[in-house]
Write a sequence for this structure.
C-alpha cells in the first residue's frame, strides 16, 4: 500500500514536473526536468538522457579503430548495391573522418572537416537510409573536397556527415528509421513537438511506424548528433540530402513570409536558386516543414538557411547520373559567399552543451580522453 501511495505521489509529482516542462521557457531546463520527470514516474523508455549519455560517446583512444571497422562494414553493405567503397564510401584512407558519438548499435557517427574559416557549410546524408541514393553521393562529395581543396574558398569551412543514421542503413534492406524505430527527422525538439508531432503521426501517417517521431523529442543520438554538429560548428547554411520527392526545398530566413525581405534574407533564400541553376534547373518547391524536422529546427526556429535536396529516386543504379547532375550544385553551395546574420541564437549558446554540460565540452578537442561523468 505504502509503495502504491509512494508511486502515486511520485506520479503526481511527475505530472507536475511535466507541466513545468511544457510551460517552461528555458529549453535546457526543460531537458533537465524531463530527466527528473521520467525518473520520478519510474518511466523507462528508450531515450538518450544525461544519465546514459556516456554510452553514446566514442572513447577517443579507440575512435580510429571504430571508424575503420565501420568503413569495413560499409564496404560489405555497399557490395549489395554494387557501389564502390573507395570512390563512393569512406574513400582510400585520405578523408579525415572523425567521430565523437556513436549509435545505439555501436556505429561511429562520422563527419569530416575541410577548410578553415568563419563561413561554414554543413552537408548531411543518410538521415533516412532506405532512401539510399544520398549516401554514396555525400560520401563521394567528401572525397571530392579532399582531392580538390581549391574548391573551398579562403575563409570557408565545410563539414560533411554522410551517414547520420548508420543503424538504419545496416539493417537488412535498410530502414527509414534508426535502430530504435524512430524517424530521426521528426525527433528534433521543435517548439511544436509536444503539441503536434504525435498528433501529426497519428492523423497524417496513420501511426505508420516508418514515421514514428519518438516517445519524447531529442530522444535519439542521431538527432543529438545533428544538434551537436550545429552547435559545435555553427553552420551558416545546411544542405541535407534525401530522396525520392524530386525537388529542392528551402527553410530559413525569408521563407514563408509575404513581405519585403532584408538583403541578408534575400541572399539566404537565393542559395537554393543558385543550387538549382547548377543542377540543370532542378525543381524548387516551397514545401512546409514538419514538427520535429531539421528544416523546422534549424531553418525555421534558428534561422539557419537549410536546403533539402530530394533526389528523384532511391534507385542505387543512379549514382553516377546524380553525381553529374547535383555535385555542381553542392560545389556552388560550398562556394556561396554567405555569413548568416539572421541567426544570433544559432551563433550563441549551445543547447547541446547546456544540456549535456561538461561531459561533452571537450569533445571537439583532438584526441583527448573523454571526460568522466
Ligand atoms: Zn527523407
Amino acid at each position: 500500500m505504502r509503495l502504491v501511495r509512494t508511486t502515486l505521489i511520485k506520479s503526481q509529482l511527475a505530472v507536475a514536473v511535466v507541466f513545468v516542462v511544457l510551460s517552461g521557457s528555458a529549453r535546457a531546463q526543460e531537458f533537465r526536468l524531463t530527466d527528473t520527470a521520467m525518473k520520478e514516474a519510474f518511466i523507462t523508455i528508450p531515450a538518450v538522457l544525461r544519465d546514459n549519455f556516456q554510452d553514446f560517446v566514442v572513447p577517443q583512444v579507440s575512435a580510429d579503430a571504430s571508424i575503420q571497422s565501420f568503413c569495413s562494414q560499409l564496404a560489405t553493405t555497399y557490395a549489395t548495391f554494387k557501389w564502390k567503397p573507395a570512390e563512393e564510401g569512406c574513400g582510400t584512407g585520405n578523408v579525415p573522418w572523425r567521430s565523437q558519438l556513436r549509435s545505439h548499435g555501436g556505429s561511429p557517427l562520422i563527419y569530416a572537416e575541410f577548410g578553415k574559416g568563419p563561413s561554414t557549410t554543413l552537408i548531411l546524408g543518410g538521415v533516412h537510409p532506405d532512401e539510399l541514393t544520398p549516401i554514396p553521393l555525400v560520401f563521394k562529395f567528401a572525397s571530392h573536397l579532399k582531392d580538390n581543396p581549391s574548391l573551398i574558398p579562403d575563409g570557408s569551412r565545410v563539414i560533411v556527415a554522410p551517414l547520420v543514421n548508420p543503424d538504419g542503413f545496416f539493417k537488412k534492406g535498410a530502414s527509414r528509421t534508426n535502430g530504435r524505430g524512430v524517424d530521426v527527422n521528426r525527433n528534433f525538439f521543435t517548439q511544436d513537438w509536444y503539441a503536434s508531432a504525435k498528433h501529426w503521426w497519428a492523423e497524417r501517417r496513420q501511426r505508420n511506424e516508418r514515421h514514428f517521431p519518438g516517445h519524447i523529442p531529442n530522444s535519439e543520438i542521431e538527432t543529438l548528433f545533428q544538434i551537436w554538429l550545429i552547435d559545435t560548428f555553427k553552420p551558416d547554411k545546411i544542405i541535407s540530402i534525401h530522396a525520392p520527392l524530386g525537388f529542392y526545398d528551402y527553410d530559413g530566413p525569408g521563407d514563408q513570409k509575404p513581405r519585403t525581405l532584408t538583403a541578408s534574407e534575400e541572399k539566404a533564400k537565393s542559395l537554393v536558386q543558385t543550387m538549382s541553376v547548377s543542377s540543370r534547373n532542378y525543381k524548387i518547391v516551397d514545401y512546409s516543414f514538419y514538427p520535429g524536422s531539421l528544416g523546422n529546427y534549424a531553418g525555421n526556429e534558428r534561422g539557419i538557411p537549410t536546403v533539402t535536396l530530394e533526389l528523384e529516386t532511391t534507385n542505387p543504379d543512379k549514382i553516377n547520373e546524380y553525381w553529374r547532375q547535383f555535385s555542381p550544385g553542392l560545389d556552388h553551395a560550398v562556394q556561396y559567399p554567405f555569413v548568416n546574420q539572421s541567426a544570433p541564437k544559432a551563433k550563441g549558446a549551445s543547447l547541446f552543451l547546456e544540456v549535456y554540460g561538461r561531459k561533452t565540452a571537450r569533445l571537439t578537442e583532438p584526441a583527448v580522453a573523454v571526460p568522466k561523468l
